Amino acid sequence: MVYNRGMSKRKHHEPKTASTPATSQLTAAGIDFQVLEYEHDPDHMDQGYGIEAAARLGIDPKHVYKTLMADLGHERVIAVVPVDGHLDLKALAASVGAKKAVMADPATAQRESGYVLGGISPFGQRTRHRIVLDAGALDADRIVVSGGKRGFDVSLKPQDLIAVLDAVTAPLSTW
Question: Which parts of this chain are annotated as the region Disordered (predicted)?
Answer without folding.
Answer: 1-24
